[in-house]
């Protein structure tokens, strides 16, 4: 199994609208995707693009807002009302190979493999097995997202 690039950093927020203003007005971001609901995961999502080297796309910021009280992000925001870093997402070429790799290492996988916000298969690894960081593993998107 070979780890790919850091695709995005998930940032929980009580308000995507306010976070977009922050990234635009304070951080100077200029490229934002249209927010959308990802009901299967109980979140509203908005990606902020950061520039990479030589005109390529850099690592994205994934703003995640809860969709209702049952959202896992709602629980995170109860403990962190202002929001904050929620997870890191790394790309892999083959999600099933990666899942088998991590399982073979004894890492706890949280739930089944499912479609993520980029429309590609993902799974999450338990923070206690990943140096305290909730980690998302995402199959590399075929269209370059």
UniProtKB/TrEMBL annotation:
The organism's superkingdom is given as: Bacteria
The record, for Pfam families, names:
Glyoxalase_4 (PF13669)
What terms describe the molecular function in GO for this protein? metal ion binding; methylmalonyl-CoA epimerase activity
* Membrane spanning residue stretches: none
* InterPro entries listed in its UniProt record: Glyas_Bleomycin-R_OHBP_Dase, MeMalonyl-CoA_epimerase, MMCE/EMCE_epimerase, VOC_core
Q: In its keyword annotation, does this UniProt entry include Lipid biosynthesis?
A: no
Q: Say yes or no: keyword Flavoprotein present.
A: no
What are the alphabetically sorted keywords of the record? Isomerase, Metal-binding
**EC numbers, comma separated:** 5.1.99.1
Question: One GO biological process from the UniProt record?
Answer: L-methylmalonyl-CoA metabolic process
* Domain VOC, first and last residues per copy: 5-140
What protein family is recorded? Belongs to the methylmalonyl-CoA epimerase family.
State what protein this is by name. Answer: Methylmalonyl-CoA epimerase
From which organism does this entry originate?
Answer: Pontixanthobacter luteolus
